[in-house]
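Here is one record:
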Amino acid sequence: MQMIRELLDQVKLLVPDFEQMRQRIRVVERHILLPIKAVALPIILWKALVHIWNTEVMTHWDATMHTVYLFFVLYFMISLAWGILVWGMDGLKRWQLLSVIFAGILVDTLFLSALMIASHGFDSPVFWLFCLWIIRSSVCLPTFLNQLSMALFICIFYVSAGFLESWAVSADGYSREAFVEPVVLRIFFLVILSASSMGLHLTLIRQKQVRDEAQEFWLRQEQIRANGRLAAEIAHQLKNPLGIINNVAYIIQKKVERGKSDIESQIQIIREEIDRSDRIITDLMGYAKLAEGTLERLAINEELERALDQVFPKASQFGIEIIKEYAQGLPNLMMQRSHLAEILVNLLSNARDILENRGQIALRSRFSSDYAVIVEVADSGPGITPELLSQIWTPYFTTKRKGTGLGLSIVKHNVEMYGGTIEVYSELGQGTCFTIQLPARSFLRIS
Protein backbone atom coordinates (compact mmCIF):
# COMPACT_ATOMS: atom_id res chain seq x y z
CA MET A 1 0.00 0.00 0.00
CA GLN A 2 2.83 2.37 0.79
CA MET A 3 4.35 1.84 -2.66
CA ILE A 4 0.99 2.44 -4.33
CA ARG A 5 0.50 5.61 -2.28
CA GLU A 6 3.95 6.90 -3.22
CA LEU A 7 3.29 6.09 -6.88
CA LEU A 8 0.01 8.02 -6.79
CA ASP A 9 1.79 10.96 -5.13
CA GLN A 10 4.31 11.03 -7.96
CA VAL A 11 1.59 10.74 -10.60
CA LYS A 12 -0.25 13.69 -9.06
CA LEU A 13 2.78 15.86 -9.78
CA LEU A 14 2.60 15.14 -13.53
CA VAL A 15 0.35 18.08 -14.34
CA PRO A 16 0.64 20.13 -17.54
CA ASP A 17 1.32 23.83 -17.37
CA PHE A 18 -1.89 25.85 -16.94
CA GLU A 19 -1.37 27.82 -20.15
CA GLN A 20 -0.63 24.60 -22.03
CA MET A 21 -3.81 23.07 -20.64
CA ARG A 22 -5.80 26.20 -21.55
CA GLN A 23 -4.49 26.02 -25.13
CA ARG A 24 -5.54 22.36 -25.43
CA ILE A 25 -9.03 23.19 -24.21
CA ARG A 26 -9.22 26.18 -26.53
CA VAL A 27 -8.46 24.00 -29.55
CA VAL A 28 -10.57 20.94 -28.66
CA GLU A 29 -13.53 22.44 -26.85
CA ARG A 30 -13.90 25.91 -28.37
CA HIS A 31 -12.54 25.57 -31.90
CA ILE A 32 -13.68 22.01 -32.71
CA LEU A 33 -16.49 20.84 -30.44
CA LEU A 34 -18.35 24.14 -30.00
CA PRO A 35 -18.99 24.66 -33.77
CA ILE A 36 -20.14 21.01 -34.11
CA LYS A 37 -22.60 21.48 -31.25
CA ALA A 38 -23.81 24.77 -32.71
CA VAL A 39 -24.85 22.89 -35.88
CA ALA A 40 -26.09 19.59 -34.40
CA LEU A 41 -27.93 20.67 -31.26
CA PRO A 42 -30.68 22.75 -32.92
CA ILE A 43 -31.50 19.74 -35.15
CA ILE A 44 -31.61 17.43 -32.13
CA LEU A 45 -33.77 19.92 -30.23
CA TRP A 46 -36.23 20.17 -33.13
CA LYS A 47 -36.57 16.38 -33.43
CA ALA A 48 -36.96 16.03 -29.65
CA LEU A 49 -39.74 18.60 -29.50
CA VAL A 50 -41.55 17.04 -32.46
CA HIS A 51 -41.36 13.59 -30.84
CA ILE A 52 -42.62 14.88 -27.49
CA TRP A 53 -45.57 16.65 -29.09
CA ASN A 54 -46.60 13.92 -31.55
CA THR A 55 -45.94 10.65 -29.70
CA GLU A 56 -48.20 9.00 -27.17
CA VAL A 57 -46.73 6.89 -24.41
CA MET A 58 -48.09 3.39 -24.87
CA THR A 59 -45.30 0.95 -23.99
CA HIS A 60 -42.19 0.77 -21.86
CA TRP A 61 -40.16 1.62 -24.93
CA ASP A 62 -42.31 4.71 -25.57
CA ALA A 63 -41.82 5.83 -21.97
CA THR A 64 -38.09 5.32 -22.23
CA MET A 65 -37.83 7.27 -25.49
CA HIS A 66 -40.05 10.03 -24.07
CA THR A 67 -37.59 10.40 -21.18
CA VAL A 68 -34.66 10.38 -23.60
CA TYR A 69 -36.14 13.20 -25.70
CA LEU A 70 -36.95 15.23 -22.60
CA PHE A 71 -33.30 14.87 -21.63
CA PHE A 72 -32.31 16.10 -25.11
CA VAL A 73 -34.23 19.32 -24.42
CA LEU A 74 -32.52 19.71 -21.04
CA TYR A 75 -29.17 18.90 -22.65
CA PHE A 76 -29.67 21.67 -25.20
CA MET A 77 -30.11 24.27 -22.43
CA ILE A 78 -27.13 22.95 -20.46
CA SER A 79 -24.97 22.97 -23.59
CA LEU A 80 -25.99 26.56 -24.30
CA ALA A 81 -24.74 27.65 -20.86
CA TRP A 82 -21.63 25.50 -21.26
CA GLY A 83 -20.87 27.06 -24.64
CA ILE A 84 -21.04 30.56 -23.17
CA LEU A 85 -18.57 29.60 -20.44
CA VAL A 86 -16.18 27.94 -22.91
CA TRP A 87 -16.34 30.93 -25.24
CA GLY A 88 -15.30 33.19 -22.34
CA MET A 89 -12.82 30.68 -20.91
CA ASP A 90 -9.93 33.18 -20.96
CA GLY A 91 -11.46 34.91 -17.94
CA LEU A 92 -11.79 31.74 -15.87
CA LYS A 93 -9.38 30.65 -13.15
CA ARG A 94 -7.75 27.23 -13.23
CA TRP A 95 -10.22 25.49 -10.91
CA GLN A 96 -13.17 27.16 -12.61
CA LEU A 97 -12.04 26.08 -16.07
CA LEU A 98 -11.32 22.55 -14.85
CA SER A 99 -14.80 22.31 -13.27
CA VAL A 100 -16.50 23.54 -16.46
CA ILE A 101 -14.65 21.05 -18.67
CA PHE A 102 -15.18 18.11 -16.30
CA ALA A 103 -18.90 18.87 -16.01
CA GLY A 104 -19.15 19.39 -19.77
CA ILE A 105 -17.60 16.02 -20.61
CA LEU A 106 -19.79 14.33 -17.99
CA VAL A 107 -23.02 15.83 -19.40
CA ASP A 108 -21.90 15.02 -22.96
CA THR A 109 -21.35 11.41 -21.87
CA LEU A 110 -24.92 11.32 -20.55
CA PHE A 111 -26.03 12.63 -23.95
CA LEU A 112 -24.13 9.84 -25.70
CA SER A 113 -25.80 7.34 -23.36
CA ALA A 114 -29.23 8.70 -24.29
CA LEU A 115 -28.30 8.64 -27.97
CA MET A 116 -27.13 5.04 -27.55
CA ILE A 117 -30.49 4.06 -26.03
CA ALA A 118 -32.29 5.60 -29.00
CA SER A 119 -30.10 3.76 -31.53
CA HIS A 120 -30.20 0.03 -30.67
CA GLY A 121 -28.16 0.01 -27.44
CA PHE A 122 -25.08 -2.18 -27.53
CA ASP A 123 -25.38 -2.49 -31.32
CA SER A 124 -25.26 1.30 -31.74
CA PRO A 125 -22.35 2.92 -33.63
CA VAL A 126 -22.39 5.55 -30.86
CA PHE A 127 -19.84 3.24 -29.19
CA TRP A 128 -17.11 4.91 -31.25
CA LEU A 129 -18.11 8.31 -29.85
CA PHE A 130 -17.51 6.90 -26.36
CA CYS A 131 -14.00 6.05 -27.54
CA LEU A 132 -13.51 9.61 -28.79
CA TRP A 133 -14.78 10.92 -25.44
CA ILE A 134 -12.09 8.94 -23.60
CA ILE A 135 -9.44 10.50 -25.83
CA ARG A 136 -11.05 13.91 -25.32
CA SER A 137 -10.87 13.57 -21.53
CA SER A 138 -7.20 12.57 -21.64
CA VAL A 139 -6.44 15.70 -23.69
CA CYS A 140 -8.54 18.25 -21.82
CA LEU A 141 -8.38 17.06 -18.20
CA PRO A 142 -5.03 17.88 -16.57
CA THR A 143 -4.63 15.34 -13.77
CA PHE A 144 -4.47 11.57 -13.67
CA LEU A 145 -7.29 11.33 -11.12
CA ASN A 146 -9.58 13.50 -13.27
CA GLN A 147 -8.93 11.29 -16.29
CA LEU A 148 -9.37 8.08 -14.29
CA SER A 149 -12.68 9.30 -12.83
CA MET A 150 -13.99 10.32 -16.23
CA ALA A 151 -12.92 7.02 -17.83
CA LEU A 152 -14.85 5.13 -15.14
CA PHE A 153 -17.92 7.32 -15.73
CA ILE A 154 -17.75 6.73 -19.48
CA CYS A 155 -17.53 2.95 -19.08
CA ILE A 156 -20.33 2.87 -16.49
CA PHE A 157 -22.62 5.06 -18.61
CA TYR A 158 -21.96 2.93 -21.68
CA VAL A 159 -22.86 -0.31 -19.89
CA SER A 160 -25.86 1.26 -18.13
CA ALA A 161 -27.27 2.68 -21.38
CA GLY A 162 -26.93 -0.68 -23.11
CA PHE A 163 -28.70 -2.59 -20.36
CA LEU A 164 -31.40 0.07 -20.05
CA GLU A 165 -32.17 -0.21 -23.76
CA SER A 166 -32.26 -4.00 -23.51
CA TRP A 167 -34.62 -3.82 -20.52
CA ALA A 168 -36.97 -1.41 -22.31
CA VAL A 169 -37.15 -3.73 -25.33
CA SER A 170 -37.60 -6.94 -23.33
CA ALA A 171 -40.22 -5.33 -21.05
CA ASP A 172 -42.52 -5.05 -24.08
CA GLY A 173 -42.18 -8.75 -24.88
CA TYR A 174 -39.46 -8.55 -27.53
CA SER A 175 -36.28 -10.57 -27.40
CA ARG A 176 -32.71 -9.87 -28.46
CA GLU A 177 -29.97 -12.19 -29.65
CA ALA A 178 -27.21 -12.90 -27.16
CA PHE A 179 -24.62 -10.16 -27.31
CA VAL A 180 -22.41 -11.04 -24.32
CA GLU A 181 -19.18 -11.57 -26.26
CA PRO A 182 -19.18 -8.38 -28.38
CA VAL A 183 -20.24 -6.32 -25.35
CA VAL A 184 -17.40 -7.70 -23.23
CA LEU A 185 -14.96 -7.02 -26.06
CA ARG A 186 -16.20 -3.44 -26.40
CA ILE A 187 -15.94 -2.80 -22.67
CA PHE A 188 -12.46 -4.32 -22.67
CA PHE A 189 -11.56 -2.05 -25.59
CA LEU A 190 -12.80 1.01 -23.66
CA VAL A 191 -10.68 0.02 -20.64
CA ILE A 192 -7.57 -0.54 -22.75
CA LEU A 193 -8.13 2.74 -24.61
CA SER A 194 -8.54 4.58 -21.29
CA ALA A 195 -5.32 3.12 -19.88
CA SER A 196 -3.41 3.83 -23.10
CA SER A 197 -4.67 7.42 -23.34
CA MET A 198 -3.79 8.18 -19.73
CA GLY A 199 -0.40 6.51 -20.08
CA LEU A 200 0.40 8.46 -23.24
CA HIS A 201 -0.75 11.68 -21.57
CA LEU A 202 1.50 11.10 -18.54
CA THR A 203 4.44 10.12 -20.76
CA LEU A 204 4.20 13.29 -22.84
CA ILE A 205 3.97 15.46 -19.73
CA ARG A 206 6.94 13.69 -18.16
CA GLN A 207 9.02 14.15 -21.32
CA LYS A 208 8.22 17.85 -21.35
CA GLN A 209 9.19 18.13 -17.68
CA VAL A 210 12.49 16.42 -18.42
CA ARG A 211 13.17 18.92 -21.23
CA ASP A 212 12.18 21.81 -18.96
CA GLU A 213 14.44 20.54 -16.18
CA ALA A 214 17.38 20.22 -18.59
CA GLN A 215 16.88 23.78 -19.79
CA GLU A 216 16.42 25.00 -16.23
CA PHE A 217 19.59 23.19 -15.17
CA TRP A 218 21.60 24.94 -17.87
CA LEU A 219 20.17 28.39 -17.09
CA ARG A 220 20.72 28.05 -13.37
CA GLN A 221 24.22 26.72 -13.82
CA GLU A 222 25.11 29.65 -16.06
CA GLN A 223 23.74 32.19 -13.59
CA ILE A 224 25.53 30.50 -10.71
CA ARG A 225 28.82 30.61 -12.62
CA ALA A 226 28.32 34.26 -13.55
CA ASN A 227 27.54 35.20 -9.93
CA GLY A 228 30.50 33.20 -8.70
CA ARG A 229 32.93 34.88 -11.11
CA LEU A 230 31.61 38.31 -10.12
CA ALA A 231 31.86 37.60 -6.38
CA ALA A 232 35.36 36.15 -6.73
CA GLU A 233 36.51 39.20 -8.67
CA ILE A 234 35.07 41.59 -6.07
CA ALA A 235 36.67 39.68 -3.20
CA HIS A 236 39.99 39.57 -5.04
CA GLN A 237 39.94 43.31 -5.72
CA LEU A 238 39.18 44.06 -2.06
CA LYS A 239 41.73 41.69 -0.58
CA ASN A 240 44.67 43.12 -2.54
CA PRO A 241 44.51 46.68 -1.09
CA LEU A 242 43.88 45.28 2.37
CA GLY A 243 47.04 43.22 2.07
CA ILE A 244 49.01 46.28 1.05
CA ILE A 245 47.57 48.30 3.95
CA ASN A 246 48.50 45.51 6.35
CA ASN A 247 52.09 45.42 5.08
CA VAL A 248 52.47 49.21 5.32
CA ALA A 249 51.06 49.21 8.86
CA TYR A 250 53.57 46.52 9.81
CA ILE A 251 56.44 48.59 8.42
CA ILE A 252 55.23 51.69 10.30
CA GLN A 253 55.04 49.70 13.50
CA LYS A 254 58.64 48.50 13.06
CA LYS A 255 59.84 52.05 12.51
CA VAL A 256 58.01 53.27 15.60
CA GLU A 257 59.66 50.55 17.68
CA ARG A 258 63.02 52.16 16.94
CA GLY A 259 61.91 55.58 18.16
CA LYS A 260 59.47 57.15 20.48
CA SER A 261 55.95 57.77 19.25
CA ASP A 262 52.39 57.54 20.51
CA ILE A 263 50.82 56.26 17.31
CA GLU A 264 50.95 52.57 18.25
CA SER A 265 47.36 52.59 19.48
CA GLN A 266 46.21 54.03 16.16
CA ILE A 267 48.20 51.41 14.31
CA GLN A 268 46.64 48.71 16.47
CA ILE A 269 43.20 50.03 15.60
CA ILE A 270 44.13 49.89 11.92
CA ARG A 271 45.27 46.31 12.26
CA GLU A 272 42.07 45.35 14.15
CA GLU A 273 39.93 46.96 11.49
CA ILE A 274 41.91 45.17 8.82
CA ASP A 275 41.32 41.85 10.61
CA ARG A 276 37.62 42.62 10.90
CA SER A 277 37.39 43.58 7.24
CA ASP A 278 39.25 40.44 6.31
CA ARG A 279 36.77 38.31 8.27
CA ILE A 280 33.86 40.02 6.56
CA ILE A 281 35.40 39.48 3.14
CA THR A 282 36.07 35.85 4.03
CA ASP A 283 32.38 35.50 4.81
CA LEU A 284 31.59 37.22 1.54
CA MET A 285 33.69 34.62 -0.19
CA GLY A 286 30.74 32.36 0.43
CA TYR A 287 29.19 34.11 -2.54
CA ALA A 288 32.24 33.20 -4.59
CA LYS A 289 31.50 29.53 -3.94
CA LEU A 290 28.48 29.87 -6.19
CA ALA A 291 30.50 28.54 -9.10
CA GLU A 292 31.52 25.43 -7.20
CA GLY A 293 29.52 22.24 -6.98
CA THR A 294 26.77 20.90 -9.18
CA LEU A 295 23.00 21.11 -9.17
CA GLU A 296 21.16 18.17 -7.67
CA ARG A 297 17.58 16.99 -7.37
CA LEU A 298 16.91 17.54 -3.67
CA ALA A 299 14.00 16.26 -1.58
CA ILE A 300 13.13 19.11 0.78
CA ASN A 301 12.03 16.86 3.66
CA GLU A 302 15.36 15.01 3.62
CA GLU A 303 17.28 18.31 3.52
CA LEU A 304 15.29 19.59 6.51
CA GLU A 305 16.37 16.50 8.44
CA ARG A 306 20.01 17.05 7.42
CA ALA A 307 19.87 20.66 8.64
CA LEU A 308 18.30 19.56 11.94
CA ASP A 309 21.07 17.02 12.52
CA GLN A 310 23.64 19.75 11.88
CA VAL A 311 22.09 22.40 14.15
CA PHE A 312 20.84 19.99 16.81
CA PRO A 313 23.37 17.12 16.98
CA LYS A 314 21.90 13.99 18.51
CA ALA A 315 24.63 13.80 21.13
CA SER A 316 23.85 17.31 22.40
CA GLN A 317 21.13 18.14 24.88
CA PHE A 318 18.79 20.97 23.93
CA GLY A 319 15.64 21.91 25.76
CA ILE A 320 13.92 22.84 22.50
CA GLU A 321 10.96 20.88 21.14
CA ILE A 322 11.04 20.27 17.39
CA ILE A 323 7.64 20.01 15.66
CA LYS A 324 7.67 18.53 12.16
CA GLU A 325 4.79 18.92 9.71
CA TYR A 326 6.06 17.56 6.39
CA ALA A 327 3.81 17.13 3.37
CA GLN A 328 4.43 13.97 1.34
CA GLY A 329 4.88 13.66 -2.42
CA LEU A 330 6.58 17.05 -2.81
CA PRO A 331 8.47 17.68 -6.06
CA ASN A 332 12.24 17.76 -5.98
CA LEU A 333 14.15 21.04 -5.98
CA MET A 334 16.96 21.57 -8.46
CA MET A 335 19.63 23.31 -6.35
CA GLN A 336 23.12 22.95 -5.03
CA ARG A 337 22.90 21.12 -1.71
CA SER A 338 25.26 23.59 -0.02
CA HIS A 339 23.04 26.54 -0.94
CA LEU A 340 19.89 24.94 0.43
CA ALA A 341 21.75 23.78 3.54
CA GLU A 342 23.01 27.32 4.13
CA ILE A 343 19.43 28.62 3.99
CA LEU A 344 18.03 26.04 6.40
CA VAL A 345 20.98 25.94 8.80
CA ASN A 346 21.07 29.74 9.15
CA LEU A 347 17.36 29.94 9.96
CA LEU A 348 17.50 27.03 12.40
CA SER A 349 20.62 28.39 14.10
CA ASN A 350 18.99 31.78 14.56
CA ALA A 351 15.88 30.15 16.06
CA ARG A 352 18.02 28.01 18.38
CA ASP A 353 20.00 31.02 19.62
CA ILE A 354 16.86 33.08 20.18
CA LEU A 355 15.12 30.37 22.24
CA GLU A 356 18.13 29.79 24.53
CA ASN A 357 17.30 26.12 25.16
CA ARG A 358 13.58 26.55 25.84
CA GLY A 359 10.60 26.76 23.55
CA GLN A 360 9.51 25.23 20.26
CA ILE A 361 10.65 25.25 16.65
CA ALA A 362 8.13 24.20 14.00
CA LEU A 363 9.26 22.97 10.58
CA ARG A 364 6.62 22.74 7.87
CA SER A 365 6.76 21.83 4.21
CA ARG A 366 3.90 21.93 1.71
CA PHE A 367 3.13 22.22 -1.98
CA SER A 368 1.94 25.43 -3.59
CA SER A 369 -0.58 25.60 -6.43
CA ASP A 370 1.95 27.33 -8.71
CA TYR A 371 4.32 24.31 -8.61
CA ALA A 372 6.48 25.58 -5.78
CA VAL A 373 7.61 24.13 -2.46
CA ILE A 374 6.92 26.19 0.67
CA VAL A 375 9.01 25.77 3.82
CA GLU A 376 8.24 27.44 7.15
CA VAL A 377 10.64 27.79 10.07
CA ALA A 378 8.76 29.14 13.09
CA ASP A 379 9.94 29.64 16.66
CA SER A 380 8.11 30.49 19.89
CA GLY A 381 10.65 33.10 20.87
CA PRO A 382 10.16 36.71 21.98
CA GLY A 383 9.60 37.98 18.45
CA ILE A 384 11.17 40.89 16.60
CA THR A 385 10.24 44.54 17.01
CA PRO A 386 8.95 46.36 13.90
CA GLU A 387 12.03 48.59 13.90
CA LEU A 388 14.41 45.62 13.75
CA LEU A 389 12.17 43.67 11.39
CA SER A 390 12.75 46.21 8.64
CA GLN A 391 16.56 45.84 8.97
CA ILE A 392 17.13 42.10 9.32
CA TRP A 393 17.96 41.63 5.61
CA THR A 394 20.56 44.44 5.67
CA PRO A 395 24.14 43.12 5.35
CA TYR A 396 26.24 43.51 8.51
CA PHE A 397 23.22 44.30 10.66
CA THR A 398 23.12 42.06 13.70
CA THR A 399 21.91 42.02 17.29
CA LYS A 400 24.35 39.25 18.28
CA ARG A 401 27.57 40.10 20.06
CA LYS A 402 29.65 37.82 17.81
CA GLY A 403 27.56 37.93 14.64
CA THR A 404 28.76 39.31 11.32
CA GLY A 405 25.27 40.28 10.20
CA LEU A 406 25.58 38.34 6.96
CA GLY A 407 23.54 35.22 7.78
CA LEU A 408 20.07 36.42 6.76
CA SER A 409 21.38 38.49 3.84
CA ILE A 410 23.04 35.35 2.44
CA VAL A 411 19.83 33.38 3.07
CA LYS A 412 17.82 35.95 1.10
CA HIS A 413 20.44 36.00 -1.65
CA ASN A 414 20.43 32.21 -2.00
CA VAL A 415 16.63 32.02 -2.06
CA GLU A 416 16.24 34.76 -4.68
CA MET A 417 19.04 33.30 -6.77
CA TYR A 418 16.81 30.28 -7.44
CA GLY A 419 13.78 32.41 -8.23
CA GLY A 420 12.26 32.03 -4.77
CA THR A 421 10.94 34.41 -2.14
CA ILE A 422 11.34 34.66 1.62
CA GLU A 423 9.06 36.49 4.03
CA VAL A 424 9.10 36.95 7.79
CA TYR A 425 6.18 37.38 10.17
CA SER A 426 6.80 38.29 13.78
CA GLU A 427 4.96 39.72 16.78
CA LEU A 428 6.42 40.54 20.16
CA GLY A 429 5.76 37.69 22.52
CA GLN A 430 4.31 35.53 19.71
CA GLY A 431 7.47 34.26 18.02
CA THR A 432 8.80 34.55 14.47
CA CYS A 433 8.05 32.62 11.28
CA PHE A 434 10.19 32.62 8.14
CA THR A 435 8.33 31.44 5.02
CA ILE A 436 10.39 30.34 2.02
CA GLN A 437 8.90 29.61 -1.38
CA LEU A 438 11.18 27.83 -3.85
CA PRO A 439 9.99 26.99 -7.36
CA ALA A 440 10.29 23.32 -8.25
CA ARG A 441 10.12 24.28 -11.91
CA SER A 442 11.12 27.74 -13.06
CA PHE A 443 13.41 29.46 -15.51
CA LEU A 444 15.96 31.96 -14.27
CA ARG A 445 17.16 34.84 -16.37
CA ILE A 446 20.90 35.29 -16.65
CA SER A 447 21.58 38.83 -15.55
In short: The chain has three domains: 2-177, 220-291, 296-439.
